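Hi R.,

Here's the input for the glycine complex you asked about:
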Amino acid sequence: MNIMVIGGGGREHAIIKKLAENKDVTKIYALPGNGGIAADAECVDIKATDIDGIKAFAQEKGNIDYAVVAPDDPLAMGCVDTLEGIGIPCFGPNAKAAIIESSKVFAKDLMKKYGIPTAQYETFDDMAKALEYLETAPIPTVIKADGLALGKGVIIAETRDDAKAAVRRMMEEKAFGESGTRIVIEEFLTGPEVSVLSFTDGQTIVPMISSQDHKRALDGDQGLNTGGMGTVAPNPYYTEAVAAECMEKIFLPTVRAMNEEGRTFKGCLYFGLMITADGPKVIEYNCRFGDPETQVVLPLLQSDLLTIMQAVTEQRLAEVDVTFSEESACCVVVASGGYPASYEKGKVITIGEPEGKTDIFIAGAKLEDGQLKTSGGRVLGVTSVADTLEEAIQLSYRNVEKITFEKAYYRKDIGRRALEVERS
Ligand code: AMP
Ligand code: GLY
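And here is the predicted structure with glycine in place:
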């Protein structure tokens, strides 16, 4: 089988390595992939958002049997619709369903209409009204740009002035472009966060093993928000009781709601949850695999990924086996110094021989003269799997020490909180 994977980060590297375990897979193309993915797939220099280019490539090859569309942008742009239109079965939602991530207003209104627990909110497309609302809104408050904003469109404002400034930045100065034309202002919730990725074919929903992201740049959850500096799985806050409540009140109702709206969701539906004193609530939906969550979740998947994905596409997910290992995984992201603000590129990366059950997923690197060099903020993720979370964390950090490039940095406390919870 010839498979095409759209995207080029650590998540896509993890997906590609897992797909390659299937003996029927003979060729994987990554569009665009990256310098590290090139070891596991043929990289084709076509951007993930170049939908016409992707279509033309598939038509020119004429032998693509299956496609996986991983990032949010091409999903929102209808990459799946386009590829299905030329007869290529795909993993991923069509544009109509991808709106669950690409419009926060849509997602919030869906949850309100169908009684799915989430933070209280108001939506605004008029800046004056938003500013007026903030005169009396409870503080802290959370301001969200409606559209996709590279994970940066969420501002937690501790004061009324900060909240108003955030609204002006989004709606007047257009800091996130058209994504900020409409905004959501919502209640500030507290509690531990859990990421749950799920497979769904629109009828059945199968949650994957839970995980915990570490979004801030620095140890102790300090510093700027990033795409994610590391993950662990499973997440100890996600107990069996919480899982059962989520299935009943969030997962199944979401799948049904999307069907009711004529937007059947097929693919990976990601639930960003907060476990509040009033029970689990949805912080965000993503219409795709999370990154770096995927880098801990897929290494623990024991069933065949391609078989599951094809079952999702063909709406027979209920028939296939989806089993996760009882082990734990830890992924530490190694980033370029300065990330998520400005950073230098082109640093030579050396990777020592990894020990234990370890994968190095390359996110932001290119091959130049046969050398792997940094080309992005998050450069790579080091995932180790072991019997216990503590061992997985230790092993991952031992392997991280074997990685060098100039100005490399990483958080030293990935999984620390999870370990404390496990022990308490
Ligand atoms: P998002 O981009 O929607 O994942 O939001 C980024 C982060 O902002 C989340 O992971 C939360 O830590 C935080 N956040 C978002 N919404 C809320 C909320 N209503 N209350 C508290 N924290 C929030
Ligand atoms: N790690 C969070 C995300 O993928 O959106």
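One thing worth noting: The mean pLDDT is 96.

Cheers,
M.
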